């Protein structure tokens, strides 16, 4: 929840001109996020106006529940308090059939790959996110 609130604050407060920081973020990405409560495998189109469109699969781990997701959202480039010095691409997706969620891959200097491994400060298992440019 803390990361969601931080993402919402960052998305709302960073001006468009400063958000991309000259990084080649715009395009189509395949992102996979694994955590204890859920796993997400989706294709995300990041547009120059910081909007996004995502579709894929949302799996509730430890259950047989999974959802095909499809919906809009927004993205921004910025820091993350959990990992000082890192630049993250914060993506917030609003699919409609599951709760709004965010993923946070880190810019690793490779224009075709993003990656982050995060340990939530309140406990729980690690959250791993990897994205690869596909278009």
Describe this structure in words.
The chain has 2 helices and 8 strands. The chain has helices at residues 2-13, 16-19, and strands spanning 27-34, 38-46, 51-60, 66-78, 88-93, 101-103, 113-118, 127-133. Strands 6-5-4-3-2-1-8-7 form an 8-stranded antiparallel sheet. 27% of the residues are buried.
Shape: globular
Give the biggest beta sheet: 8 strands, antiparallel
Specify the number of helices: 2
Distance between the termini: 31 Å
Any low-confidence stretches, pLDDT <50, length ≥5? Answer: 1-19
Q: Give the H and E element order.
A: HHEEEEEEEE
- The class by helix and strand makeup works out as mainly beta
Strand content: over 45%
Radius of gyration: 14 Å
How do the strands line up in the largest sheet?
Answer: 6-5-4-3-2-1-8-7
| Helix content bin | 10-25%
Spell out the key features of this protein.
135 residues; mainly beta; eight-stranded antiparallel sheet; 2 helices; 8 strands; globular
Write the layout of secondary structure elements.
Elements: H1 2-13, H2 16-19, E1 27-34, E2 38-46, E3 51-60, E4 66-78, E5 88-93, E6 101-103, E7 113-118, E8 127-133
Short description:
With 135 residues, the chain is mostly beta strands. It is built from two helices and eight strands, in the order H-H-E-E-E-E-E-E-E-E.
């Amino acid at each position: 929840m803390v990361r969601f609130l931080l993402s919402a604050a960052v998305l709302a407060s960073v001006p468009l001109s400063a958000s991309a920081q000259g990084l080649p973020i715009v395009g189509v990405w395949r992102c996979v996020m694994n955590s204890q409560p859920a796993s997400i495998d989706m294709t995300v189109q990041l547009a120059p106006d910081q909007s996004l469109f995502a579709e894929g699969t949302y799996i509730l781990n430890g259950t047989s529940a999974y959802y095909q997701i499809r919906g809009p959202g927004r993205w921004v480039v910025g820091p993350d308090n959990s990992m000082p010095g890192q630049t993250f691409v914060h993506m917030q997706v609003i699919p409609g059939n599951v709760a709004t969620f965010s993923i946070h891959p880190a810019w690793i200097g490779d224009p075709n790959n993003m990656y982050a491994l995060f340990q939530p400060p309140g406990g729980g298992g690690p959250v791993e996110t990897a994205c690869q440019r596909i278009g």
